[in-house]
Structure formats: C-alpha cells, structure tokens
Amino acid sequence: MRYCIIFCLILNSQVCISQASTRDTEPQVYNQTELVFSTFNSYTLSHVVSSVLKEAYVKLGISTSISYLPGNRSLLYSSTGRVDGELFRIEGIQREFPDLIQITEPILELETIAYSSDVEFNINGWKSLNPYKLGFLRSFKKAEKNTQGMNTYQDDSLNNLFKLLNKGRIDLVIESQIGASVILQLEDKPVIKALYPPVDRFYIYHYLHTKNKNLLLPITDVLSEMRRSGEIQQIIDSTLQKLAKGK
Hints:
Blueprint: H1 2-25, E1 34-39, H2 44-58, E2 63-68, H3 71-79, E3 85-90, E4 100-102, E5 108-116, E6 134-137, H4 141-146, E7 152-155, H5 158-166, E8 172-176, H6 177-181, E9 193-209, H7 216-229, H8 231-244
C-alpha cells in the first residue's frame, strides 16, 4: 500500500510538471486578432514602419492593417479610438493626446534632412533654417515645434512638396532621409540636393490607444528582441529595396 501511495505521488508530480511545461510553451492568446493603425498618407517612411510593425504583431498572432490618412486626421482617429493606435510618431505625443500610450521601445532613428534645389548653406540645427521658406508634411510635429515663427508651408503630400521645391515656391523641404529616399530616385525629378549635416536626429515610436493597453508589454518585448537580433534593420533594408523597384 505504501509503495502504491508513493507511486501515485510521483505520477501526480510528473503530470503537474508536464502541465506547467505545456503552459510555459503555449503562445499567449490575446482578445485582439486584428488591429487597424492610422498614419500619414502613403509614402516611403509609412510603408517602412508598416512592414516592421506588421511583422512584430504577427509574432503575437495578431494581423494588422494600415489606414493612410492626412497627418492631423490620423491623430484624430487614433486618439479617439476610431482605430487601434498610431503607427508611429515622435516621442511625447501622449502629452497632447492622453488616450495614446507610447511604446517605450523605439522603432528606428531618423535623420531629418533639408532638401534643396538651388540653396546651399551650412546646416547648424533648426535655427539655421530661419532665413528660408520651408515645406514639410502636415502634422510633422517635430518640424512644427522647431520652426515656430519661421516661414513654413505644410502639405499632406511629400510629392507635392518636392514639386513646389522644383518650381521655386519653397526653398527647402524638411523630411527624413528614409522618407525622401525613394521619391528622389524617380527619373522625372530634377536634381535635388540633401544638405548635411542633418538638421536633427530623433527616434520614432509606436502608439496604442488605451483600449489596447494589454498589448503594451508584449509588443514592447517583441520590438526589443527584433532590434537586438537585427531583424528591424533587415526589414527596413528589404522594404526600401522593394519600394525602389516599384514593388
């Protein structure tokens, strides 16, 4: 009898260990199976970040789709919960839109470049742009903040901005190196120069609406591991190559 009791105890402990091991290896299941994120009108940077985040959410078993909108409308949709979050923005947007939660792990670092067709000067931060008429994407918060009091024009289309630059209607287009990289490779574009050094360098971040706050830690962990392994950079490089080929 004593041996039978001991055997049962051993068997029971093995079952418990097996169940615990199974629980540890089972993927976490989330209530959300599909998410929609809003962002700027379709252009190179939004496509690059979309590729990164789509892959990140796949690792959580969640599919994603992107709603490309004018910049201000994108923030309206994401901050009011009409969509599930903002694809990417600069740090600190939650101070203006408290229902958006910033993912602390950055997606990537951007170099902000001044693009010119005939103006040349030494770039020394945002203040050095003051003598010129500047164009940048509407709701580009970093540019809005740093060009207050300057002569600026905002548009929802990067292509339109470069057309205005070519016509001499504006002196400089302010945009990230990644954001302008593909559009400047088009054959019908006159010579446009990128002025160096960069005006600024900063990180961009993903934002979730508060209704999806349960995903905050999981997506942070996934992005952190993707950065550590080099996967984010691989996705960026691959996406840029495809966009340059028109795919």
